[in-house]
Specification:
Chain lengths: ~160, ~650
């Protein structure tokens, strides 16, 4: 083969090799680390997989926050005004965590239907509503009209 | 009255930007010297008008003019004066004005240095920058004017600046970051003007190099500052979150790093010509994409401004026009370019090619992870988030590989290097690095990845110094005169590469050698973490200028001796009814003590985070070194020569 062509082939082969390795790595990592969002209604209807990393969220139900008196364990309910999910967490909640506020939790749904969170996120802006929650609330609102008023009053 | 003048001067500057975009180009086309020479004054007038409206908006902030909607939304009469000023860029409209101000600043800088360019090229570069300015000025004027008024019902007081932003970080982080972001539009302008004039030889690369190095240095500093700010301000001690908006600043950085290196090859050897042009366009597009992600609200992030779909659409159109236009031009022009120079497989060109491939791959993996949720949602597959583990597991191996080659590139010679010479130096360094890293990893019980990363760090240090030593010991002169003769460019590279190493060491040690605890503590409690005893002394109530604070006091003891007194706070801002965590830090060269308070759990107990972070400062120290390296390279004497000399 012509030496220039040979060199070009080598360059192309190197690029192809690195690219395919990178693509493989990306595919693998994506498969492991995608976290789907489920609303409390979806969880209640059994659409959410158990013992897999997912995200769930909604508005924190007023009066539902219960703390352990010795440790940092805390449990609270979130709702989309249709169904509720209990979330358990051990650690420090974000500053913007408040009853009546929208939050997103990351973790696993256990077999008993309780969501064990490894991370609880609230936005750094009190006017902000995570888009997932806004959408979950909207679809819940569409399904029945009775709850519509209570949804509006929380904004 | 004044805000109207500000608005008016923005409109005027848009007209001047329009003429800047058109007049010199027409002049170039018609070979009319007069029209070409108009580029400089047009640039200066445009910039002065933008500066005027910026000054007017800052005066509105400083004088608490709440009749201006934007001031009323983002400031408050109680706010300390320096935050009143920086509140200007605390929201979307003002930060966009800052962006435009910095853009016009870069334009003026190019106009000042225009003598270093050939007569026809400089005005065309300014003209392209004029097109970019038209885009951003019209974005500012048509979708987000900061001068809109609240008349006649002027509020008595403003809605206050978000407490998170009432910090030194807000004063410095956005301006420096924008200097970097926007600076890449200069490299873009050079690339596009090279396409327009057809001067796609090595010279455009030489003109673009110092500008690219300078903006890269600013972007590096901006990202570093952002990481440092997040670390102490968000209250949980993370320094990088792979948040979409962080990624938005990181992608242009990666692409810009690739651009810096490929510009060097294009300038010195005249190869990769069309690739370098493409990379300059690509880097600038990623800056625009970043602006789109931050300002359109399509992604969930700590940074996102209040979402407004029209703004998103505007930037998207701007992105399509600028990028589409330049790519079209590229498609028409770049086919004419053919590299005639060849290079060997072990020449420096080959190593830099590898650098470019790896950096491009890294950029795409970050891009993919950032945009994947959008694509997933658009396809109706559900709402997802791509977590930090994705980025960590993809980024780490590729970045380590990149750093392995990073040390080899400078050793090799242009065109061709004897393989045996390379092999000899490298095998000694590899052996030494592996042994040293192995020892450290063994004694400190680090895992495989940490040990490997340390080996890479030692490897780069060994090879960098052996390269320097070889360069200064060659020839008959003494070491010191030789060392002083080496170009600034070279020292810039050395410093930036070593900065990379320092950051790597910081990252490795902070992730494997730190101790992090979340505890339930009451005043009087003691706890021992990583050899430090922390005593929770007391709590007190303190009143600040615009907040009330619950302030804790912790004393840290090492071997019975008090080493630090820490005051973490929980501040309550009454205007916004918002609580803010202020972490307390005791910074050190090898470790940080970090205490931050969570919530009050009952009468006396609080949830408390206590971290002992190993070598965390090194992450930002490395960033500073990289920035200094970039500036040093930008100031290399070679670039200051006049055209034709």
């Amino acid at each position: 083969m012509h030496p220039v062509r040979k060199k070009r082939l080598l360059v192309i082969l190197t690029i192809a090799l690195i690219l395919s390795a990178a693509v493989g790595l990306v595919m693998y990592a994506l498969q492991q680390n995608i976290n789907l969002f489920f609303s409390p209604s979806q969880v209640a209807m059994g659409e959410a997989p158990r013992n897999v990393n997912i995200r769930a969220g909604g508005m924190v139900v007023k009066g539902s926050v219960k703390r352990n008196s010795d440790t940092l364990a805390v449990a609270f309910d979130v709702t989309d005004f249709q169904h509720k999910v209990t979330i358990e967490y051990r650690g420090i909640l974000p500053d913007l965590f408040r009853e009546g506020q929208g939050i997103v939790a990351q973790g696993k749904l256990k077999d008993d239907g309780v969501f064990e969170a490894t991370e609880v996120l609230a936005k750094h802006d009190e006017k902000y509503m995570p888009p997932e929650i806004a959408e979950a609330l909207k679809s819940a609102q569409n399904s029945t009209d009775e709850s519509a008023e209570s949804v509006q009053s929380t904004y | 009255m004044f805000p109207e003048i500000g608005q008016f001067s923005l409109i005027l500057s848009l007209f001047f930007a329009l003429s800047l975009a058109l007049v010199p180009l027409i002049g170039y086309w018609k070979s009319n010297k007069l029209l070409l020479e108009a580029a400089r004054p047009l640039t200066f007038i445009m910039s002065a008008l933008v500066l005027l409206s910026f000054v007017i908006l800052s005066l509105s902030f400083l004088s608490d003019d709440f009749s201006v909607l934007y001031v009323a939304q983002n400031s408050n009469s109680q706010l300390p004066i320096w935050y009143k000023f920086s509140a200007l860029w605390g929201g979307h409209e003002g930060s966009l004005l800052l962006w435009v101000l910095i853009l016009s600043g870069w334009c003026s800088a190019v106009a000042l240095k225009i003598k270093t360019l050939p007569e026809a090229v400089g005005p065309v570069v300014l003209s392209v920058l004029g097109v970019v300015s038209v885009g951003f000025l019209s974005f500012l004027l048509f979708t987000s004017s900061p001068f809109a008024r609240l008349l006649p019902d002027v509020p008595l007081d403003g809605g206050d600046l978000n407490p998170l932003l009432q910090d030194f970080g807000l004063i410095v982080h956005p301006p420096v970051l924008y200097m970097g972001y926007v600076g890449f539009s200069v490299a873009f302008a050079f690339a596009v003007s090279a396409l327009i004039t057809g001067n796609l030889n090595a010279s455009w690369a030489r003109w673009a190099r110092p500008w690219t190095a300078a903006s890269w240095a600013f972007l590096t500093l901006g990202i570093t500052l952002g990481s440092w700010w997040a670390y102490y301000e968000l209250g949980w001690g993370g320094w990088w979150f792979w948040d979409p908006v962080e990624n938005a600043s990181f992608m242009p950085w990666l692409a810009g790093t690739a651009l810096l290196h490929s510009l060097a090859v294009t300038e010195k050897r005249g190869v990769f010509k069309s690739w370098t042009v493409l990379l300059a366009i690509f880097t600038f597009s990623l800056s625009l994409l970043g602006a789109f992600l931050v300002r359109s609200g399509v992604l969930t992030s700590v940074h996102s401004f209040a979402a407004d779909p029209t703004r998103g659409i505007f930037i998207l159109i701007l992105l399509l026009v600028l990028v589409g236009g330049s790519l079209l031009l590229y498609a028409i022009r770049a086919v004419e370019v053919r590299s005639t120079v060849s290079f060997g497989v072990t020449g420096r060109e080959a190593w830099l090619l590898l650098n470019n491939i790896l950096l491009t791959v890294l950029t795409f993996t970050v891009l993919l992870g950032t945009l994947y949720p959008l694509v997933f949602d658009a396809l109706g597959l559900g709402k997802i988030s791509v977590g930090a583990p994705y980025f960590n597991s993809v980024f780490t191996p590729i970045a380590l590989l990149l750093m392995v080659f990073m040390a080899v590139g400078p050793l090799s010679k242009w065109h061709h290097t004897k393989f045996s010479v390379l092999f000899k130096v490298c095998s000694v360094a590899a052996l030494g690095a592996t042994l040293l890293a192995g020892l450290v990893a063994y004694f400190y019980e680090f895992g495989f990845i940490a040990g490997l990363s340390l080996a890479v760090a030692f490897w780069v240090v060994f090879l960098s110094f052996s390269d320097w030593f070889e360069k200064v010991s060659a020839g008959t002169k003494g070491i010191i005169p030789r060392a002083r003769q080496l170009p600034r460019n070279y020292y810039g590279m050395l410093l930036a590469h070593l900065g990379m190493v320092v950051t790597l060491v910081g990252i490795v040690l902070v992730s494997v050698n730190s101790d992090e605890s979340m505890l339930r503590l009451s005043p009087g409690d003691k706890v021992t973490i990583a050899g430090y005893e922390f005593r929770f002394d007391q709590m007190e109530q303190v009143k600040g200028p615009n907040y009330v604070s619950s302030k804790g006091q912790f004393t840290a003891y090492k071997a019975g001796k008090a080493v630090a007194v820490l005051h973490p706070e929980k501040r309550f801002f009454s205007t916004r009814q918002q609580v803010m965590t202020e972490a307390a830090l005791d910074a050190g060269f090898t470790r940080d003590l970090y205490v931050s308070m969570g919530e009050r759990l009952d009468d006396s107990a609080w949830s408390i985070r206590i971290y002992v972070k190993s070598f965390v400062r090194w992450i930002w120290l490395g960033g500073l070194m990289m920035m200094a390296g970039g500036l040093l390279a930008a100031l290399d004497k070679r670039y200051r020569k006049r055209a034709g000399v």
